[in-house]
Request: fold
Amino acid sequence: MKIVDKMKDEDLGTALLYNFTKGYGKPVPMELYDLVLPFLYNDTLRVEIMNFDTIEACLQACSQKEKHFKQNILTAIEDDKTMTSKALGVAMLQKILQFQIVEQTMCGIANKTSILDLNETIRLGEMLQARTIDDMMTLLKQEDFHIVVLQSASVGKDVDLSMIETLGNVVMYEDTREDQVRGRILGADIVITNKNQMTAEVLEGLPRLKLICLFATGTNNVDLEYCREHHIKVANVKGYSTDTVAQHTLALLMHLVEKNANYDDYVKSKEYAHSGRFSYFDDVFHDIATMTWGIVGLGDIGRKVAMIATAMGAKAQYYSTSGHNATSDYLQVDFDTLLKTSDIISIHAPLNEKTHYLFNEEALRKMKENAYLINVGRGGIIEENALVKVLNEGHLAGVGLDVFEHEPLLEDDAIYSIKDMNKIILTPHIAWGSIEARQRCVDEVYQNILSFFKGEDRNIVNL
Reply:
């Protein structure tokens, strides 16, 4: 049944509060009830609510259709509090609702009644299931910020970005060239990007800009000092890709160690069928359990990889590029020792002054001749011309690269001059990018912006 009676009285209010509780599906914190009547007595919201899956999207649509919508709702919240209290009292007396303390919060719980279903009210309850009163008041009080997304395609076209579109006046570009950045962010309050260069030259003279959000953990593409001086906050995302990058690290290594591509070709070419042998061992592979696995950068991803290495029986050791990460769980060594004693080295460090060209020709030559090198950190950590040189001289057993100095690679990139491509596996900066991780990344950016609206500093890197 749709709400057709606009008369504001306790009986209607009681029915609305009951249906809201029913839609909410679990004990309702008492403070949320203050929103129910103001929302449902609003003609615009009552019309729009069945057209959307989230309350954010619904509020955004209402704001576009009704001038001063949010302010009207805020005013109604104060005006309708008395009626809400009376309706709750009637609901309790009539045993329509019961009230209990749940997890130290007074909550409303729906009893079984013969009250008819009110569709819009049940939908509102469903929409607010994961929202606190603070979340809702923030959404109602926030300004209509102008938000520009410069690189939506950088997180893939198969993830849901709709939640970001509910946060204000949003303009979204699939991709943006560097020469287009400044023109597209003029007048923006919030900019969301991944790898666009946010330099002082680009950001100068943008008085409205208050927040830069990154679809990434690394911040080396943003002039943090300029942003700090000009009161522009910068927020990254953390932890969303830990499992994914660790998984890809292992995948690259196993491709190199197990030689599965070679064996797959052997079988599919029918050489195996013609060989007369039940096994074929011409491409030698080794037990990782016999190896020492060196880890560069013991952040969350480095620790996860160390756990994997240990689980596989390898000896795990690490070098902290920052000098800040220390643990007794694994052996900490200096960089020279790591190079000389590791059979496997995987890189999980950020690119900065300390790590740029950390793996230069001298460092690469210190590695064991039959060692494996995996880079899922940043491309500039390895000097690629030097890597090509030592590989072409027969040094190193195999290399796995997911990141490069130039992304995408240049058509005449030095990487393409490696003589034996069987010793290298290349993936296009995808280690972080499972569908689950990319959606977590988007969700984290949404939460960063929502926290900014609340005046909270969530994942701000330049305080």
DSSP finds 20 helices and 15 strands in the chain. The longest helix spans residues 435-453. The two ends are 52 Å apart (CA to CA).
